[in-house]
Design a protein that fits this description.
Leucine-rich repeat, LRR (right-handed beta-alpha superhelix); 10% strand; single chain; 12 strands; 352 residues; twelve-stranded parallel sheet
């Protein structure tokens, strides 16, 4: 029987190697706070061989003390610009530590602390830092139980002095219609945010109205993800009507799993023939059936060279039968603009 015991990895040495990579992926390595301390040592400024610019630490066991030392290291680090800490357990105190870092650091452009249970306290701290930070471009706070107080703080950051944030994900935080309306109001004055992810937030119809209203005037938002929000056909119709009748700047819209059904699909069929900016539309998991598919197929036939749609996702609409599938196939024979379409259905997904 061998007495060999494998040495634990030395993360410090990995990050400061002379010939080290610029991108390091340490996701799902069971890194704990002790490992985080090694990483923090490597990130300090007095390590000239530390060249890492992108660091992925998602899916580990880093808690508050580990988050604190990494955050402290980033106060002086001038190399790392991309940090992913998704699915750790840094909590509200860990988020507060990174908030202090964001007030000082002038290098970091991407930060993901989604799925870290930071709560409203942590999100308020981050939002306050974002108000004055002038380098962060992408922020992921998804799956964090932000609460209404946290959403209000984030909305305030969007409509005040921040001029750099272009991507924000606050999906799966159960912000509800009231939270979504608050965010939409912020977008009336924000002229920077380009991509917004609001999936899994129980937004419903009231939110759809607020979002549709801001799309009429906002000139910077080009990508919007609203999956899994129970907006139903009524919410879909409100948003579709704006995209049909107004010149918006939206290029990519995802409304998967909103139960929009046939009527919602029909509303977006009209969008396909009228809108001049939308490049990607995702309507998967919406039970649109043959009736909705036929309307979309007709729209694909009527699209002119002035329409911009390149990608259409109708995946997992299991009740699109032979008639709907055949009509879309026939439409694609004449539609030359569409580069990608997906209508696949895996029945096993509904049996798990």
């Amino acid at each position: 029987m061998s007495d060999y015991v494998e040495e634990p990895p030395n993360y410090y040495e990995l990050l400061v190697k002379e010939d080290g990579d610029l991108k390091i992926d340490l996701s799902s390595k069971q890194i704990d706070d002790e490992g985080a301390k090694q990483i923090a040592m490597a990130l300090t400024m007095d390590n000239p061989t530390m060249k890492v610019q992108e660091l992925n630490l998602s899916g580990n066991n880093i808690q508050f003390s580990g988050a604190l030392v990494i955050a402290k290291a980033l106060e002086t680090n001038q190399i790392l610009y991309h940090l992913n800490l998704y699915r750790n357990t840094i909590g509200p105190d860990g988020a507060a530590a990174f908030a202090e870092t964001l007030k000082i650091n002038q290098t970091l452009t991407y930060l993901s602390i989604g799925f870290n249970n930071i709560g409203s306290e942590g999100s308020v701290a981050i939002a306050k830092a974002v108000e004055t930070n002038q380098t962060l471009q992408s922020l992921d706070l998804s799956n964090n139980n932000l609460g209404y107080e946290g959403v209000v703080a984030i909305a305030n950051a969007l409509k005040t002095t921040n001029k750099t944030l272009t991507f924000l994900s606050i999906g799966y935080n159960n912000i509800g219609p009231e939270g979504a309306v608050t965010v939409a109001k912020a977008l009336e004055t924000n002229h920077t945010l380009d991509k917004l992810v609001l999936n899994g937030n129980n937004l419903e119809y009231e939110s759809a109205v607020a979002i549709a209203t801001v799309l009429k005037t906002n000139k910077t938002l080009t990508s919007l993800v609203l999956d899994c929000n129970d907006m139903k056909c009524e919410g879909a119709i409100v948003i579709a009507k704006v995209l049909e009748m107004h010149h918006t700047f939206l290029e990519h819209l995802s409304l998967c799993a909103n139960d929009i059904r046939c009527e919602g699909a029909k509303a977006f069929a009209k969008v396909l023939t009228m809108n001049r900016t939308l490049k990607g539309l995702h309507l998967g998991y919406n039970d649109i059936r043959d009736e909705g598919a036929l309307a979309i197929a007709k729209a694909l036939l009527e699209m002119t060279t002035e329409t911009s749609l390149e990608e259409l996702d109708l995946e997992e609409n299991e009740k699109i039968g032979p008639d709907g599938a055949w009509s879309i196939t026939r439409a694609l024979r004449t539609n030359k603009a569409l580069q990608h379409i997906s209508v696949k259905y895996d029945p096993h997904l509904y049996m798990r």
